[in-house]
TrEMBL record:
CDD domains: HATPase_UhpB-NarQ-NarX-like. It is an enzyme of class 2 (transferase). It comes from the Bacteria. The keyword Glycoprotein does not apply. This is histidine kinase. Keywords: ATP-binding, Kinase, Nucleotide-binding, Phosphoprotein, Transferase, Two-component regulatory system. InterPro entries: DUF7134, HATPase_C_sf, HATPase_dom, Sensor_HK_TwoCompSys, Sig_transdc_His_kin_sub3_dim/P. It catalyses: ATP + protein L-histidine = ADP + protein N-phospho-L-histidine.
Amino acid sequence: MLLPVVQDALTVRSQRRLAARSELLEWAAVAALALVLLRHDLAEGPPAYRWVFTVCLLAPLLWRRRAPLTVFAVVAAVAAVQWWLDVVALADIALPVALYGVASRDGRAWPVAGGAVVMEVGAVLAAQRWSPAGSEWTIFVLLSGTTVAALATGLAVRTRAQYVAALVDRAARAERERDQLARIAVVTERGRIAREMHDIVAHTLSVMIALANGAAYTMDSEPAKARSAVEQAARLGSTAQAEMRRLLGVLRVEPADGSAPQPDTASLDDLLAAVRLAGLPTRFVVVGKAPQLAASAQLTIYRLVQEALTNVVRHAGPGATATVTLSWQDRRLNLEVVDDGHGGTGNPGHGLTGMRERAALFGGELDAGSGPDGGWRVHAVLDFAEPAP
């Protein structure tokens, strides 16, 4: 965070130094031009006050950057007095320079148009009074060309400055949008990790608690069955630990090596075996042929079944049974998990919310409630059709 701030400060400082250096060079150039023209005025002869017009025409140019319209107005007024007194001065070159300042720095249309009109009127008056006989038109064209050149150059400079400013603004907006997208991606990833952690911890702990209770009840009467339950609980704990390590590894800068792959639909058999061993007889019915699915789609199916069975283990009570049905119609899936226990809870917490969010990722819907024959029913419709191009 500190480096961009330092870079911005250095950039601003360098720009200020460049502006100060440019202004100093401009002062030096005006002073040098004034000296040359003053020497010419002194050598030219009467009127003796010609040098006053030279100073009055050139001096305002030193403030051309700060107040271009005011500078042009002062220079034009001095030039009008000069014409009225019939004094010829080479310092009239200050007029197109001042007009260039207005065109390059004032974004309004009327000062530029007004300056051009004043310059053209001055060109007509100068050509009429100071041109040799028969060359009035030629002098007027030359003076008009000077006006056009000053206007065109000033407008081109201002257009380029606006273009550069637009590029800088667009780059700044792109950087802000990139940061916002990065923050959104982080929030999305955190939400995904939170859902995964909930599914892993809630399911594993529920099954491990059921296995531990079963082992405690059968430890004396059926030690072999109790030992098998304890071993299964240990395996479930190891699997959950590996999955949590994989998810937490996403938060690190470097990916964790040897992380376990995401569960898929092929892992449903292991999930059902663990649930059955925990004391919940579960049937698994597949209708139709499952299509080839992406890993994210298979993970969604696995997590929906896992969360639904976890709720059955928690709330269905002893003696309950469950049925998991996957009914395929092309790439459309009807997923149903029902049990005949005591019914679900009216406040399922974050689990049901996470299930609905997972279903919504594939344009699906999920509802949960009491089954037609008692117990609890979770039903989801998922559409894994390829998006239209």
